Request: fold
Amino acid sequence: MGKLFARLYDPIMKPLEKIKFNSIRRELLSHATGQVLEIGSGTGVNFPYYKHVDCVDAIEPNQQMIQQAKKNIASTNNVPITIYQATAEQLPFERNVFDSVVSTLVFCTIPDPLQALEEIRRVSKPGAPILFFEHVRMKQPLLAQAQDMLTPAWKNICDGCHLNRDIVSFLGQAGLQVECINPHYKGLFLMIKCTNPK
Ligand SMILES: C[S@@+](CC[C@H](N)C(=O)[O-])C[C@H]1O[C@@H](n2cnc3c(N)ncnc32)[C@H](O)[C@@H]1O
Reply:
């Protein structure tokens, strides 16, 4: 399933990117500076949006996604990008290395989100911006129930993606300082800016 998901990812995302996601990614990534860690970089959709950063270390567990992403590195803006095959729960980096961390559409899929957030805190510098664009469990009760019902089947089709993760509560549990939350599509998607308080 991971292989098929990797192959279909870019064609599925293209219309969504054109409608709105590209402007959200551009806005979010404009807050990244210095040495950036990108979590779950997939096919490298974010890579063209890194403009004023020193370098990007991207981690991604799916080998097929990495192969696609390596092709996309060619179309980026001279920012050095290195991709590591790794999971967010076990980051292959020393503590206090990164100036910023980026995660887009990843925390729905990570099997142990709290462990991943602890790792992000460990490897990022005190005060580092931690930037998220994620889909979440909606506030509206009927829609949230629909997300709960659809999640078991959806997980099988979309490589482990949960439609109903309450990601903001994980951020609180992990001790990240939430600076601002911008909802999109009636709160189905959130752009979240946090800092690592250390
Ligand atoms: C929906 S894709 C998002 C890709 C990209 N970030 C984007 O915005 O288009 C989710 C990605 O999370 C990755 N992923 C799954 N489990 C992960 C984990 N434990 N740690 C890091 N990334 C993971 C998947 O392989 C996939 O590339």
The longest strand covers residues 177-184.
